[in-house]
Amino acid sequence: GIWHIKEHEQFFLEKVPLHQNITHTHKRLQHMAGRLLLKVLYPDFPLPLILIADTNKPFLENEVFHFSISHCGDYAAVIISTISRVGVDIELATQKIERIKYKFLNDSELAMHSAVGKKLLTLFWSVKEAVYKWYGGGEVDFRKHINIVQDNIDPDAGTILCEFLKDGHVYLNISYTFFGDMCLAWLVTKT
């Protein structure tokens, strides 16, 4: 689910509790919009039982639900499964991504996609973030452990094949779509 945040804080406070001390007003709105989305998708989602791992990944101790939350700007995104591990990321395509591409793309990805602009760079970042959240174990080097191996990429929506090389070798299909300047990437796999 995706929530376009247009409401005031009181709207969210009437529906979901604020369990963390978040001082920045917009960050609080993003946090509560993500929590409300969990309840919209699964009304019996146990919000008070959410824990935060050392990696900052929210989780439920008993894993009754596998879930991932992302937020950027005026959007929050959530993915939930009762049976499979999941990851989601939402990003705004901006020129800033060009400056950091060397931090998350390896040499072969840079060569394969040397002429891409902010839209596809944002997609690559979002895909790798979704994989990172899916993994949830931390200590992932985006350049070394997550490789985009597909070179024919639709610029608007589709799937991207990646290989994940941390703790083994797994091929993953990450779905994505663009709406306006926003990119949404997500994946669901068996645990």
Overview of this structure, please?
This protein is of the alpha+beta class and 191 residues long. The chain has helices spanning 9-13, 25-41, 96-104, 107-112, 118-135, 142-145, and strands at residues 2-4, 50-52, 58-60, 66-72, 75-81, 84-92, 146-148, 157-164, 170-179, 182-190. Strands 6-10-9-8-7 form a five-stranded antiparallel sheet. The longest helix has 18 residues, at 118-135. The radius of gyration is 17 Å and the shape is globular.
List the defining traits of the structure above:
191 residues; 5-stranded antiparallel beta sheet; 3-stranded antiparallel beta sheet; 32% strand; globular
Topology (elements, then pairings):
Elements (H helix, E strand, L loop, with lengths): L1 E3 L4 H5 L11 H17 L8 E3 L5 E3 L5 E7 L2 E7 L2 E9 L3 H9 L2 H6 L5 H18 L6 H4 E3 L8 E8 L5 E10 L2 E9 L1
Antiparallel strand pairs: 1-5, 2-3, 4-5, 6-10, 7-8, 8-9, 9-10
Rg, alpha carbons = 17 Å
Find the structural class using helix and strand composition.
Answer: alpha+beta
Mean pLDDT across all amino acids = 92
Cα-to-Cα separation, first versus last residue: 21 Å
Beta content comes to 25-35%
Helix content: 25-40%
User: Major sheet: order of its strands?
Assistant: 6-10-9-8-7
List low-confidence stretches.
none
* Helix/strand order, N-terminal first: EHHEEEEEHHHHEEEE
How many E strands? 10
